[in-house]
Specification:
The complex is a heterodimer of chains A (about 300) and B (about 350). Chain A has eleven helices and two strands; from the N terminus they run ααααββααααααα. Chain A has about 300 residues and is mainly alpha-helical. Chain A has a single domain, classed as ABC transporter involved in vitamin B12 uptake, BtuC (Orthogonal Bundle). A two-stranded antiparallel sheet of chain A has the order 1-2. In chain A, strand 1 (about 130) and strand 2 (about 135) form a beta hairpin. With about 350 residues, chain B is mostly helical. Chain B has a domain at about 45-265. Helices cover about 75% and strands about 0% of the residues of chain B. In chain B, helix 3 packs across helix 9, helix 3 packs across helix 13 (about 275-300) and helix 12 (about 255-270) packs parallel to helix 15. The longest helix of chain B has 28 residues, at about 275-300. The radius of gyration of chain B is 21 Å and the shape is globular.
C-alpha cells in the first residue's frame, strides 16, 4: 500500500509539470487559435534562466524571478512579432510548423548557451516538506501544486473579469468581429504569447529548483499534449485535472506493469501517448473542452 | 504559362501530358543519363550523399501524397519508416528471406501500420491528427524496443546487403543504382497518382473535406488510401536505409526526422512532386554543409556549437520559408521558367 501511495505522490509531482506546460499551451490556443508545440521549450528556457540568475550571478530569489519574467516578456514579444504575426491567415499547418521550428531554434540556442548539460539548484528556492505518517511528500509536489493553483486562479480571474482577458476570449471566437468592435487583435496576440512565456518560465524555475532542467525536458512538452487533449484544448482547469490524472496513472502503470514487460518496460515514456490515442479516438474534445461544430 | 510559346494543345491527351515538347523529352533523357553516369565520376563520399538523398526523396514523396495532396498532416513519418525498416531487417536477417521478397513485405507492413494510425483521421484533423501521428511515432519506437528478442532492441540488428543471382549490392555505386531506380519509379508513380481519380479526390479532401464528402468523395476510404500509400513509400525508404547501412537501430529514425521531412515539404513546396524532390535535395545538402562547418565552428567557438548549429539552422530554414516563400522552391522554379519563356517581355 505504501508503494502505491508513493507512486501516487510522485505521480502528482509529474502531473504538475505536465499541467504547467499544458496551461501555457491552452492560453495561447484560447486567444489566438495557434497550437504552440514550443511550450515545453519555454519551460526548459525558464529553468536555465533560473540557473543563470540564481547560481551564476548569485542573485537573490526575488531579483532572479523579476529578471526571468522580464526575459520571458521580451522573448514572448519577439516570438510573436517576428514569427507568428507574418502567418496570420495562413493554414493550421504553417502555424504548427512555425512553432516546431521555434522549438528547434530554442533547443539549439539552449545547447549553445548552457551546453545542453543537466543543471539544478537544490536548496536555493524555499522548500516545504510535509510528512503524513510514514509517507513523505516531496517539496516539488507541494510547490508545484501551490504555484499551479495560484497561476490557474489568477488566469481564471483574468479571463473572467478584466477587459484584456475578455478581449482575448473574444478574439479566439472571431477575430474579424472583434476587430470591428475596436479591439486591437495584434496586441491581444502579443499578450497571449507573453503570458504563455511567463507561465512557462516560472514553471521552469520551480522545476529547475526541485528536479533540475536539461534539454530532454523539452520532450516532456510533447508528452504534456496528452494532458492538453484529455483536459480539453480550451479548458485551463481541465489542464490541471488532466495533468494530475495522467501523471498519477503514468506512475502507477509504470510501477506495476514495467516488471511484467520484456526489456525493462519503459512504459512511462510511452504511456501519455497511449492516453493521447485513446482520447483522440473516443473523445477528441477531451473531458472539459468545447465540442466544435463545423459547417461548410 | 505552362508551355513554351507557340505550343498549342489540340487534344485532351496533349493537354494532360507531362512532357509536352521534344525539348522536354531531350532534357529528361539527358538528366537521367547524367544520373546513371554519376558513379563513373563521383567519389564514394559523394555517392553516399546521393544515395541518402535518393532514399529521402522516396520517403518525402510518400509524405507529400499524404500531407501535400490529401492534407492529412503526419509527424510520424520516421516511425512508419522504422516499421518498414525493421520488417525488412527481421525478414532478411532472422528468417533468411531474399531482399526482393522482404522489400514488398516491408512496404505492406508500413502501409498496414499507417492504416491503423490513420483510422482516427476520419474524426479528427489538423492539430489533433498531428498529435495522433506524434503518438504513433513514439508508440512504434517503444514496441520495437520491447520486442528485443526479434528486433534486437537497443542493440540493433545486423542486416545483409541485397543480392540478385550471385551479385551482391556491396559497392556504393551498385547500391546507388538500386536506390536511383526505385526513386525514379517512385517519382513516376507519385506524379501519375495525383492525376488519377484518387489523386483528384485527395486534392478535394485537402481543400475542404466536408465539401468533398458532399460531392460524393468517400472520405474514409480516400483518407485511408492516402495513409496507406504514404506509408508504403515510407516503408520502402526505411527498408532501403537499413540495408544500405547493413544495420538497423531505432536511432536511425529519430522524431526530429519526422519534423525534418515536413520541413522538406515546406521548403520544396507542398502538393508538388517536383517540390518533394527540391526539398529533399536542398535540405539534405544543407545537412551536409552543417556536418562540414559544424566541427570548424566547434573548434572556434565552443564544443557544443556543432550540435546547436544543426538545430538552429534547421529551425531557421523552416521559419524563413514559412514567412517569405510559403509555396516553396517549386513555385520559385515555375517563376524562373515563366520568366525564361517570356524573355525579353515581362508579361
Amino acid at each position: 500500500m505504501s508503494f502505491f501511495l508513493q507512486l501516487v505522490v510522485s505521480g502528482f509531482a509529474l502531473g504538475m509539470v505536465y499541467a504547467l506546460i499544458a496551461i501555457g499551451f491552452v492560453i495561447i490556443l484560447k486567444c489566438s487559435k495557434a497550437f504552440n508545440i514550443a511550450q515545453g521549450h519555454f519551460v526548459m528556457i525558464g529553468g536555465y534562466l533560473g540557473f543563470t540568475f540564481l547560481v551564476t550571478f548569485h542573485l537573490p530569489v526575488w531579483a532572479s524571478l523579476i529578471l526571468a519574467v522580464a526575459a520571458a516578456i521580451i522573448l514572448g514579444l519577439l516570438i510573436e512579432r517576428f514569427t507568428l504575426r507574418p502567418l496570420v491567415g495562413q493554414p493550421v499547418l504553417a502555424v504548427i510548423m512555425m512553432t516546431i521550428a521555434l522549438a528547434t531554434v530554442l533547443e539549439g540556442l539552449a545547447t549553445l548557451v548552457w551546453g545542453g548539460e543537466y543543471k539544478t539548484y537544490h536548496g536555493v528556492l524555499p522548500t516545504i516538506t510535509l510528512k503524513i505518517g510514514e509517507l513523505s511528500i516531496p517539496p516539488e509536489t507541494l510547490i508545484g501544486v501551490m504555484v499551479s493553483i495560484a497561476v490557474v486562479t489568477i488566469l481564471m480571474l483574468f479571463f473572467r473579469y478584466t477587459r484584456s482577458g475578455l478581449a482575448m476570449m473574444a478574439t479566439a471566437e472571431d477575430e474579424q468581429v472583434v476587430q470591428s468592435a475596436g479591439i486591437k487583435v495584434t496586441t491581444v496576440y502579443a499578450l497571449s504569447w507573453v503570458i504563455a512565456c511567463v507561465v512557462g518560465v516560472i514553471g521552469g524555475i520551480i522545476l529547475g529548483g526541485v528536479s533540475g532542467v536539461m534539454i530532454p525536458l523539452a520532450n516532456v512538452g510533447l508528452k504534456a499534449f496528452a494532458v492538453v487533449l484529455l483536459g480539453g484544448v480550451n479548458s485551463i482547469g481541465g489542464a490541471i485535472v488532466a495533468g494530475i490524472m495522467v501523471g498519477v496513472l503514468e506512475n502507477i502503470a509504470a510501477g506495476y506493469l514495467d516488471p511484467l514487460l520484456p526489456s525493462g518496460g519503459g512504459l512511462a515514456s510511452v504511456f501519455p501517448f497511449i492516453v493521447m490515442i485513446i482520447v483522440l479516438i473516443f473523445r477528441p474534445h477531451g473531458l472539459f473542452g468545447l465540442v466544435e461544430i463545423e459547417r461548410i | 504559362m505552362g508551355l513554351p510559346s507557340g505550343t498549342f494543345n489540340q487534344s485532351y491527351g496533349q493537354d494532360m501530358a507531362i512532357f509536352r515538347t521534344r525539348t522536354h523529352w531531350v532534357m529528361l533523357l539527358a538528366f537521367l543519363i547524367f544520373l546513371f553516369a554519376c558513379p563513373l565520376f563521383f567519389s564514394d563520399r559523394i555517392l553516399t550523399i546521393l544515395t541518402i538523398i535518393g532514399i529521402t526523396i522516396i520517403s518525402v514523396h510518400g509524405l507529400n501524397i499524404l500531407t501535400g495532396y490529401c492534407g492529412q498532416i503526419s509527424l510520424g513519418h520516421a516511425g512508419f519508416m522504422a516499421v518498414g525498416a525493421y520488417t525488412s531487417a527481421v525478414l532478411t536477417a532472422k528468417l533468411d528471406w531474399s531482399f526482393w521478397a522482404a522489400l514488398p513485405c516491408a512496404a505492406l507492413a508500413a502501409g498496414m501500420v499507417g492504416l491503423l494510425f490513420g483510422l482516427p483521421s476520419l474524426r479528427i484533423k489538423g492539430f489533433y491528427l498531428i498529435m495522433a501521428t506524434i503518438a504513433a511515432h513514439f508508440i512504434i519506437m517503444w514496441v520495437i524496443l520491447q520486442l528485443y528478442s526479434v528486433t534486437g532492441g537497443g542493440n540493433g540488428l545486423a542486416v545483409p546487403r541485397p543480392e540478385i543471382g550471385g551479385f551482391v549490392f556491396k559497392s556504393k555505386g551498385s547500391y546507388f543504382y538500386l536506390v536511383l531506380i526505385i526513386a525514379c519509379l517512385g517519382t513516376f508513380f507519385a506524379k501519375n497518382l495525383v492525376r488519377t481519380r484518387a489523386g483528384r479526390a485527395f486534392i478535394a479532401i485537402r481543400d475542404n473535406d466536408l465539401a468533398a464528402e458532399v460531392m460524393g468523395v468517400n472520405l474514409l476510404s480516400y483518407k485511408l488510401l492516402a495513409f496507406f500509400i504514404g506509408c508504403v513509400y515510407a516503408g520502402v525508404a526505411g527498408s532501403l536505409l537499413v540495408h544500405y547501412f547493413a544495420f538497423a537501430t531505432v536511432d536511425q529514425f529519430p522524431f526530429m526526422n519526422s519534423v525534418w521531412y515536413l520541413g522538406m515539404l515546406i521548403v520544396g513546396g507542398m502538393g508538388s512532386t517536383a517540390g518533394a524532390i527540391f526539398g529533399a535535395v536542398s535540405l539534405k545538402l544543407l545537412d551536409e554543409l552543417v556536418t562540414i562547418v559544424g566541427p570548424i565552428l566547434s573548434a572556434a567557438v565552443a564544443p557544443q556549437a556543432a550540435a546547436s548549429l544543426g538545430l538552429i539552422m534547421r529551425g531557421l530554414v523552416i521559419i524563413i520559408f514559412l514567412i517569405f516563400e510559403p509555396r516553396g522552391l517549386a513555385h520559385r522554379w515555375q517563376m524562373v521558367k515563366a520568366y525564361y519563356r517570356l524573355w525579353p517581355f515581362s508579361h
